[in-house]
């Protein structure tokens, strides 16, 4: 029998399980160690559950806007259709049961795929045991729930242990009224008055979703505007929509403490103001899962923020130890975690590997409207990091948007001044996550605005606006006139 490379992966989220699939396909002997279930936080508590909840919220938003824009009447006294009452409201217990069912099923599917690929899945908590041996191997100790330990030897270890919600000592979640984002799926009833602390992506997504489901929402944002890390024009659109729908967005407000008072909660802000609600969701960031893992003893360096330092092929500072995903703090996205994991395996197993390129990453904020971005950002252009021209067109001018009653949103594309090569873009629209793809393809393949403009789009369609923005950028380069059609 030939020599088989042994690989141990600690953490079964997208960083870990995608790496396991690749490594097994490349012929390695792979063991994935995970303490919660394959799919990781991504599948069990983060992406999958939140997007499943948001699927219900989206339908509610469509209903809510359907009378004003489309003339649809949905009233409590509408006669039942096929025996089902036509009342718009949400049974949150039912929604949450569906969320959990779907997450578990997805986790099982992933475990089956990983096992089918030939990898071994072990339930337990993994940690590195000291430095590399003279033979160039690493040891991982796996502690099962019952305390029993098992030692695994491997030529390479991938650490993909993810992150968990950050907690503030004076606002500790109790799982009932003060919640973090992993606990909201245990609610049986819709929070009547929800305070969301934190207006980053997670805070904004949940604030928008619960508002659509019927909660009265107060969003406590420490910055000037919501989504401080996103495109400023996009964030302005979303904040405007939030306020128009009745959300209380409190800018430049920082929560100091949150406590339970009777059947509700009370949040005290740093300026002394006190706000009350029935529930509070804390969304104040995440901290990497690095403690108790023997990282220091194994020679793995951490960054100032406590994440594992990695290079562009996912190597850590310790020979034979790679890291991927949220634990590296590079880009908290499932897609990036998966890419980092795959790159690590391609690199270690000697396959062709392209280093991680963050300038082609596309991401989406799942609010209504959605905000999708790819490549270089407005901040990159404004700070001079890249020389680029841009055109932004509101969706209001798009014929399909008019027919569908879509009023909020825009398409923005950045291209290089001389060549017209597309370097980035932003789409704010319903299903922007789907609409961003042509711009992603352009960014990834150095396509020009002319090439985007020349591809047919369906008439009428929202993607017509993408072609129109590209056309305007091309015309401006060629000194032509803006057409303004889409
Ligand atoms: C609310 C929310 C919504 C999100 N939505 C999206 C989205 O829509 N799209 C997107 O791309 N990203 C989204 N993200 C980000 C995404 O969830 C993360 O980027 C992704 O989960 C990172 O994957 P990972 O492999 O690094 O770790 P994780 O998915 O966190 O998995 C790590 C696994 O390792 C296990 N583990 C930890 N320590 C050990 C140990 N010592 N031994 C064994 N196992 C261990 C954990 O229990 C977990 O199962 C969202 C995040 C949040 C918070």
UniProtKB/TrEMBL annotation:
Flavoprotein listed as a keyword: yes
Keywords noted in UniProt: FAD, Flavoprotein, NAD, Nucleotide-binding, Oxidoreductase
Broadest EC class assigned to this enzyme: oxidoreductase
GO molecular function: flavin adenine dinucleotide binding; NAD(P)H dehydrogenase (quinone) activity
Residues bound to NAD(+): 198-205, 285
Pfam families: Pyr_redox_2, Pyr_redox_dim
Note describing how the cofactor binds: Binds 1 FAD per subunit.
UniProt keyword DNA-binding, yes or no: no
Cross-referenced PANTHER family: MERCURIC REDUCTASE, NAD(P)H DEHYDROGENASE (QUINONE)
UniProt family annotation: Belongs to the class-I pyridine nucleotide-disulfide oxidoreductase family.
Complexes and interactors: Homotetramer.
Protein name: NAD(P)H dehydrogenase (quinone)
